Amino acid sequence: MSLELTRLERQYEDFTLGPMSLTVEPGVTAVLGPSGSGKSTVLSLIAGFESPDGGRVRINGRPIENLPPEDRSVGMVFQNYALFPHLTVRENLAFGATEGGDIEATAQLLEIEPLLDREPNTLSGGEAQRVALARALVSEPDVLLLDEPLSSLDAPIRRRLRLELRDVLAALEIPVVYVTHDQSEAAVVGDRLALLDDGDLVREGPTGDVFDRPNSAFVAEFLGMENVFPASVVGENGSETVVDVGSRTLTAAREPPAEPVAVAIHPDTVELCGNAERAFEDAENVLHCSIERILTQHTDATIVLDWDGKNRLTATVDRHVARALTVGDGCRARVAPADVHLTRRDR
Fold first, then answer.
1. Inter-residue contact 135 to 92 (CB < 8 Å)
2. What class has domain 3-212?
């Protein structure tokens, strides 16, 4: 089973989606992007709520772009769940069930058997989310679409449910398109990522590859690297590339793209030590910095560093490491060459 979008396009007065092409195989493809980038439009075109101005939508090679929603075999879980308030949970499931749809088995899979005789207004947010997913599944869809399914829930519930949701979706063996604005959620739930920006598909691939190999400064920043700096290639050091970043040079372990380039560094990969410590003595990519801010969270801390008088470097460290640091003090920061990502500069 596969979902294929081929040069799909939709034009509005002030926005154009595509043309974009994307193939979704069984598993979860998480669609990410800023607000207004076209994520929900993609779902609407697949589900049939809107018609494309160009391009094709196929399920297993069968064109569906001209079919009404009820004939597409596409299940949809909406952001607000869209449960019928005058029906019980069981009746909500029965409304969408096909002849072969097994309400009891689906309720057992999603652990909602105790909820079957309740009304939607008595459900918690997490319960309503599972009921909405169950209603989509009993229709036995060939493709499942989820539009920000956890966005209305509190953060602790979101973190717990995304793990549960990942397990359920992984067992379906159908293409799943999961729209979210949350990078962490996408990383947990998605086998693959598709990143949109202003109606264009700018990066697509396995989740780990997309996070580890951003192909532009925009992708790096959107995925949380934070430390993105204009750079220029100045030489080679064996198999490594040397780049000039302001008044400093850094060594990267990967081939650079065509100029102009940018350097992207994830805060988690920045190591810190005080100037009095003997760490990093013979290491590459050691930067002498001063500490501007220390923001301590529950388990870690964000350290903002001035590393050349004009650029700021952000490091995420264990809060116990942060206790040994003081605002105004000098320190050394190290980034391994493998963690210096060379990518395309957007502007």
1. yes
2. alpha beta
- Residue 306 CA to residue 304 CA, distance in Å, equals 7
- End-to-end CA gap in the chain: 40
Other beta carbons less than 10 A from residue 99's beta carbon: 5
How many Cα atoms sit within 13 Å of 22 on the Cβ side? 29
Strands of the 300-306 sheet, one edge to the other: 271-274, 330-334, 286-296, 300-306, 312-318
- For residue 160 the two structure tokens come to 């717990």
Helices vs. strands in the chain: H and E counts, helices first: 9, 20
Question: pLDDT under 50 in the chain at which residues?
Answer: none
Average per-residue pLDDT for the chain: 87
Residue keyed to tokens 């109606």: 199
- The pLDDT value given to residue 164: 78
Using DSSP, state whether 288 is helix, strand or coil: strand
What pTM, to 2 d.p., does this model score? 0.81
What is the reported pLDDT for 18?
A: 84
Alpha carbon dihedral 146, 24, 21, 69, in 10-degree steps, equals: -50
- C-alpha to C-alpha distance for 220 and 324, rounded to whole angstroms: 30
- Residue 340 forms beta bridges with which residues? none
3-state secondary structure of 113: helix
Supply φ then ψ for residue 30, to 5 degrees: -90, 125
- Name the segment(s) of the chain with CATH classification 3.40.50.300: 3-212
DSSP annotation string for 301-327: EEEEEESSSS-EEEEEEEHHHHTT--T
Q: Using only the alpha carbons of the chain, give its radius of gyration.
A: 24
CATH for 267-336 is 2.40.50.100
pLDDT tens-place string over residues 93-145: 888 788 777 888 888 888 888 889 898 888 887 788 888 888 888 888 899 99
For residue 152, the model assigns a pLDDT of 67
- Tell which residue, 50, 70, 74, has the closest CA to residue 60: 74
Residues of the chain with CATH 2.40.50.100: 267-336
